[in-house]
Amino acid sequence: xxxxxxxxxxxxxxxxxxxxxxxxxxxxxxxxxxxxxxxxxxxxxxxxxxxxxxxxxxxxxxxxxxxxxxxxxxxxxxxxxxxxxxxxxxxxxxxxxxxxxxxxxxxxxxxxxxxxxxxxxxxxxxxxxxxxxxxxxxxxxxxxxxxxxxxxxxxxxxxxxxxxxxxxxxxxxxxxxxxxxxxxxxxxxxxxxxxxxxxxxxxxxxxxxxxxxxxxxxxxxxxxxxxxxxxxxxxxxxxxxxxxxxxxxxxxxxxxxxxxxxxxxxxxxxxxxxxxxxxxxxxxxxxxxxxxxxxxxxxxxxxxxxxxxxxxxxxxxxxxxxxxxxxxxxxxxxxxxxxxxxxxxxxxxxxxxxxxxxxxxxxxxxxxxxxxxxxxxxxxxxxxxxxxxxxxxxxxxxxxxxxxxxxxxxxxxxxxxxxxxxxxxxxxxxxxxxxxx
Length: 437
Known about the structure:
By secondary structure, this protein is α+β, with helices and mostly antiparallel strands. The protein has helices at residues 22-39, 53-60, 65-70, 90-99, 143-160, 175-190, 198-203, 220-224, 235-250, 295-298, 313-322, 344-356, 376-385, 396-400, 424-436, and strands at residues 43-44, 50-52, 72-75, 82-85, 108-117, 129-138, 165-171, 256-257, 269-277, 285-291, 306-312, 334-337, 361-363, 390-393, 403-408, 416-420.
C-alpha cells in the first residue's frame, strides 16, 4: 500500500486560533461585557457573518477604504448572489432591526460580540479576522443617548482596569451643513493641488472630509489650515454637541475636541468619538463610534435615528497583556479517579448525578486504549494537575459498599472521607461550596 504523507493544512494568514488557556481571557472579558451591558439595559443581538454585498456598499459608502480595498466578497456559486463576510456589524444590526421591524414599539438598545473580516496587512492589533464588541441604540434622537454610550464604554475601561485611554470627540453636523463644508473643502484643496498626495487627490471630489484624517506628515500643515466644519454648524447641531459634553463633564469624564476626527465610514452625522491610547503605537484607537441618523433609511427602512460604537477586542487584549492582567483559569470542582476500568459504567452514573447538581467533574481517561487506566498514584497526579479541589476515588472495595472516597487536593491536608453513592446529590453541595470559597 502506497502511503504518502499529506501536506499539513494551516490557518489562513491573519486569521488566528484562540486556544486554552488564552480563551479563558476571552470568556472573562465577555462575562464582564455581558454584565455591564445588562446594567445599562442593552440586549444581545446576533446577526449573520455573511451579508449581501449591497448592504455594505450602500451602508458604509462606496468610496470608503473598507468597500474599495478590504472586503472579502464573492459570488454564491448556486444562485449568483454577491455576498460579503461582514467587515463591521453596525450595518448588519440596522438591516436586522429594519427587516424585523424592531422599532415598531419604540427604541432598542442592543449589543453584539463576534468576528469581522477585512483583507488588511496583518500587524500588531490588526488581523484579517478580528473581533468586535459593539453597542447600538436605535430609535433615540437625543444627545443624552450619545453620552450614555460614551459613559458605557468608559465604564468598561474601569471594569477592565485599563488606564491611559483618552476620549476624543467631534461633531459632523447634519448633511446640509456638511454639504456646505464639503464645497469649501474642495475649493480650499483645489487651490493646493500640488501639496496633495495621491490618496488625497483621489478623494478630493468623492470624499474630501477623509482628507482631514490623513496621517501623511507632509500634509499636516495644509490640513490645519482647512475650513473647519464647526464653523458651518447651526444652533441645533451645536446644542446637541454641547449637551453631550455637559453630560460627560457632569460625570467627570475627560474629553478632547478633535476637529479632524471624521471616522472612516460615510454613515456618521453629529457626534463622533474615539477612545485612544498611546500604549499601542499606530494602532491606538481601541473603540470608536458615533451617531448615524440616516443609515436606517439608506438601507431601506423607515427613517429613524441611531448611535453606537464598536471596540476592537484584540487591541483590548494587547492593553490587558501590557498590564499583565491575570485571568482566572477554569478548573473542575472534582476529578474522578477510576483505578478499576470495570467500574466505569456505574461510576459515570454517579458523575452524571453530580453534574446535574452543578458540580464540574473531569473523569480520568487514558491517552490510548493500550495505556490502561493507570495506577492510583498516576491518576492522583493527573487530578492535582487539573486544578480540581477534590478527587473522587472509585475504589473497588468502597464501591462494593456503595460508597466512594472524597480526597481534598488543595487545602494541604489531603483529608479523605467516605461518601455514599446514593447521596451524590447531597454531598455535591459541599463540593460546589468548597470550590467557590
